[in-house]
Amino acid sequence: MANETGEQIILAGETELKRRARRDGESTSRATPDAALESRATRQGEPKPRARRGREPEPLPHGISPYLRELLADRGEHVRVMRDLLVRAYGYTPFRERSDPVGGLVGTILSQHTSDTNSSRAFASLRERFPTWEQVANAPVLEVEEAIRSGGLAAMKAPRIQRTLREIHARFGAYDLSVLDGMPRDEARALLLSLGHGIGPKTASCVLMFSLGVPAFCVDTHIQRVCARLGLIRPNDAAEKAQTLLEATVDPDDVHALHIDMIRHGRQVCRAQRPLCGGCPLREICLFGSH
Ligand code: SF4
User: Fold this and answer.
1) Does the active-site annotation cover 202?
2) Which end of the chain, N or C, is less surrounded by CB atoms within 10 Å?
């Protein structure tokens, strides 16, 4: 994959989409979001979500196209079209390799409120200074703080990492989260959330998706913004709203790839300030940028 060109990656993504469309047949056609929510929940043996009356009517701005108007009434289809357009623009990056979820959790805590570069540097520095999780858990907090200083907010993250590691050891008798293997997504997320202060839905979902390939949608500020601008959620909705919608409407096999594409889109095109709507591949389906 490392030697593939961008064009090859995009072509592979399109081939994958066509294969999915053939495989899914009528099931991918115009399913309502509520039907998608219900069938997903039923498939996972969970209680059916409370029946909803569909989207509450909202005054739509003048000038939006009939096509977008139709999509705004069908979030499942809206998400599917977004996925197709993003794959064509940025390619398709499937989940490839499982990794240690304890390391994933520590790495995700380090990534809070900082750049990928800084958090990667802090993680490498922590592992070099303390080769085992036991050493991290039992070290003087100031030494852990020193080791992760390049990641920012070290005074907050050092005790958070130590508390989390100690909690894992107290509960499972080792610095090990293999208990998550094979666990249903929502149960696994609840377990991670229960490990302590500082682990929210975004952190828990990132660990599940990046370390274990579980289709938990990790919604960060970029993804939340893109969803709001497209009209998939309301501007003031919490990230969990987007998470629930995306997990209910995105094929589990596509969660990782769509997460990667949405992050890239939010960073490069749908920026918080001065989004580049003119050349945006999503403009036709975007409430904010289409009029
Ligand atoms: S059209 Fe503009 S606001 Fe809409 S997704 Fe594209 S960049 Fe973002």
Assistant:
1) yes
2) N
